Structures are given as C-alpha cells and as structure tokens.
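Margin note: ligand = tryptophanyl-5'AMP.
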Amino acid sequence: MSIKNRVFSGIQPSGDLHLGNYLGAIRRFVPLQETHECIYCVVDMHAITVWQDPDELRRATREVASAFIAAGIDPKAHIVFNQSQVIQHAELAWVFNCIARIGWMNRMTQFKDKAGKNSENVSLGLLAYPSLMAADILLYKASHVPVGDDQKQHLELTRDIAAKFNNDYAASIAAEGLAEEFFPLTEPLIAGPATRIMSLRDGKKKMSKSDPSDASRISLLDDADAIAKKIKRATTDPEPLPSDEKGLEGRPEADNLVGIYAALSDKSKADVLAEFGGAGWGVFKPALADLAVSVLAPMAGEMQRLIDDPETIDAVLREGADRARVLAEETMTQVRRIVGFIR
Ligand code: TYM
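Resulting structure:
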C-alpha cells in the first residue's frame, strides 16, 4: 500500500544538469512540498552504470544536491540525499533483479538507445538499471513520482515489478499479516508544458547531457550571458508565432521555445500564444532570454555558492540519508521476512 501523498524522484549525477532536468523535474518538485512528503535523491549508483570518473562523480553529486536546494527544496522539511548512502536501495534492487524478467529489461527503449549495437559490451548494471529505479521508489512506497516523459516506460516497469512481487509472494505477505498490495502501483506525474524539452539546435532531438554540442542545451550553471546567447542562436523556422496551439503542429522548434517560456513563467502554452501570437522571433527570443535569465541566473549563483561549500552540502546529504534510512529499513525488514531471509 502506498504511503498516501509521498513523492519520490531521482536525478543522476552524470554530467551537467540542464534546462530539461530543471523544467521536466526539479522545478516541478518544488510545489509538491506543499501537499506531499517529498524524498529527492541524487542517484549516484545509477550514474555508475556507465563509467564515471570518481572525482567528477563527487562533483556532480554535489551539483545535483545544490540544484535541489537552490531551486527551493527545503532539506529540513523534506528529504534530500544521495542513493549510495542508503544501502537498502541496493538490497531491494537485488530482490527485484530476481523478480523482473530479462525480457522486460531488454525492451526498455532507454537501454536500447544507450547500448546501441553494443548491447553485449555494456555493463550488467545498465541492463538492470530499471530494477534499481523500482527499488528507489518502492522502498518508500511512494504514491507519486514526478519525472519527464522519457522516464514513463521505467515507471510502467516499476508497477510491473510491484505487481509481480505482490503476486509471487502473496501467501507470505498474507502470513505476515500485511496488506495484499504490499508494494503500491505508484503513479507517475508527467504533466505540464515541459515534460520533454528539446535541443536548441534540433527540435526533433531531446535536450540531453550527452549531446556533444554545448549550444544544444542551457546548463544550470550557465551565466546570464551564455543563457541569452544560446536562446538567441536557437534554431527556429522563419514563420511568426501562431496564435493557438494547433499552429505549433509540425513546428518542433517553435513548440519547444513556447513550451520553455510557458514552463518558466508557470503559464500554459495557450496563454503564451495569446500574448505572443503573430510576433516574430526578433520579439519572442529576447523576451524568452530575459525570462530565462531572470529565473536561471540567480539560481546558478546560489548553486555555485553551495558547490563552493562542500562541507555544508555533504552534511545535508548525510542528514537526509540518516532520515531516509529509517524509512527504507522499515520496508526492508518486511521484505526480508516476506522473502524468507533469516535475520
Ligand atoms: P535523469 O537523471 O536522466 O533525468 C532527471 C530528470 O530530468 C528529466 N529530463 C527531462 N525532462 C524534460 N525534458 C528533457 N529534455 C529531459 N531530460 C531529462 C527526466 O525525465 C528525469 O525526471 N532514471 C532517472 C533517474 C532515477 C529516478 C529514480 C527518477 C533513478 N531512480 C526514481 C524517478 C524515480 C534518470 O535517469 O533521470
């Protein structure tokens, strides 16, 4: 059974955070603090499914934690921690490795994209990645998971793993006197105008950490000058903005920039088009650049201040991990009994 109103989400510390991570995830984490008990995790164990330089992993872990805090997540009222400090994530992931089927993993589009033609030579961890992700979520019996659109399939798999565990161990769950739906069927929260932010160079490609072109993404540590330049140079078509959403069809670059404006100003795309319909890029791009700078530059400043003080960030992560571990251990105590492990 889910803990009513408990949110879990995670971000990988692999490379620089970008506008897609912010609008698709981190910015949406903030208001959920008003209505939910929130657990936000820097998933460093997921990051090492592909090679990470250890110093760079430490830097990127602190960068993600600092982004959470600079964006407005309160690590005292809620929980912010890095995954590897709560070893129960690995323990439950192992149990789930024995529940999930290899065929399920092979069907994951993200795995297929990352492995490419090289699927025999990627790490075993990359294949099992969604099983660890299911463990992240189900260890806390989270009711909701806010993510970008690219995580949808992983959340469906999480529900499949929960259902198979509940079913395979139904007799044991009943014998322990626990609720039949031991693991909840967690709901994804994928909504709003920014669930899939696209590259600034190519409206058909997702904005991503791994794109070789720096101009394709706005990094959360970019300064005002870099943010404005990247927006002004973003690829567009020659047409002015349409006055309604239907007019964005077949115009991926325009759709993307309008979506970014909408998300940064907490409006809908329809509202933005009501304001800018008929305007050319010479009007819209400077307005978008000003808006982006006004939201992102102060946050970048605050992130940098926190990154420059690693002791404070590390203390926040340690304290968050101590609180997460208590919740995680409650679930694992039950799971060990259900599975038949003697303690
Ligand atoms: P990751 O680290 O790739 O991305 C972090 C979050 O950012 C979102 N995102 C985007 N949203 C909109 N447009 C984009 N271009 C864009 N790029 C990334 C992602 O959807 C995600 O929400 N597997 C996860 C991390 C994870 C996790 C979890 C998430 C591990 N355990 C448990 C939720 C719950 C991942 O790789 O995200």
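The pocket of tryptophanyl-5'AMP is lined by residues 8-12, 20-21, 24-25, 43, 46, 133, 136-137, 145, 147-148, 150-151, 154, 194-197, 206-207 (CB under 6 Å).
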